[in-house]
Amino acid sequence: MQLNAQQQAAQRNLSYLLAEKIGQRILSGEYPSGSILPGELELGEIYGVSRTAVREAVKMLAAKGMLLPRPRIGTRVMPSSSWNFLDQELLTWWLTRENFEHVKDHFLVLRNALEPQACLLTALHASDTDKAAINNLMHEMRELNSHFDRERWIRVDVQFHQQIYKASANPFLTSFSNLFNSVYQSYFRSVTGNEVVKLEQHQAIVDAILAGDAHGAYVACQGLLGIEGV
Q: Looking at beta carbons, which pairs linking 108-117 to residues 24 or more positions away fall under 8 Å?
């Protein structure tokens, strides 16, 4: 039977929700690497959906490297080394309260490697408009030092770092910032108490960027991140 547009949209949404549920179970280890998932009919009964929804959900997860459907063998859960952690949906599923500390540790390794380089490139390549945007965010941070608002600080802090990645003129760094926006927000929320965070270290980055001091921006960012040996 041919489905109309509304039914097709509902089917896609149902398949996505099922992919999310199965994906989270894979991420939690409930469906461990190397195991074979229940068949389409059984999965449909478990989750109360059609075989078509199951089939589409499996396709989604296979595209993310999480599953490998094989005829006459079944659908195998792939090892985490095959998963595409740069997939926005997979990253969102992974970033649960239970997994946050684990995700954060991996995120900080990547951030420590990339953000100082982004600051260096921004000092070299930022336009006057970029510099003005970064400086305006710094002014807003200083205002928050006098009249602190936690939610506003988190929002401004995220914007500050995203603006630096954007101003680096490196499309890969910009994409990193966009992809990990939800992780940045969750991380800043976890480290922000009832006062501004490392205000002078942020200012040191801005001063170096405005001066076009690439090395200074790199070192200032390392100082903000608490990287030893700076």
A: 108/187, 110/176, 110/180, 111/180, 111/225, 112/225, 112/227, 114/173, 114/176, 115/161, 115/164, 115/165, 115/221, 115/225, 116/217, 116/218, 116/219, 116/221, 116/222, 116/225, 116/227, 117/168, 117/173, 117/218
Quick one: how many helices (H) and strands (E) in the chain?
A: 11, 2
Contact 155, 163 (CB under 8 A): no
Helix, strand, or coil (residue 77): strand
Nearest to 196, CA basis, from 154, 136, 133? 154
List C-alpha distances in Å: 207 to 115, 133, 164, 203, 215: 16, 13, 13, 6, 12
- What is the 8-class DSSP label of residue 82? G
Rounded to two decimals, the pTM is 0.83
CATH superfamily for 94-223 is GntR ligand-binding domain-like (1.20.120.530)
The residue assigned the tokens 């199965």 is 22
What does the alpha-carbon distance between residue 190 and residue 203 come to, in Å, rounded to a whole number?
22
| pLDDT at residue 174 greater than cutoff 60 | yes
Domain at 1-81, CATH from 3.10.20.740, 1.10.10.10, 3.30.420.150, 1.10.8.60: 1.10.10.10
Q: Is the pLDDT of residue 141 over 90?
A: yes
Q: Where does the pLDDT of residue 97 fall: very low under 50, low under 70, confident under 90, or very high at 90 and above?
A: confident
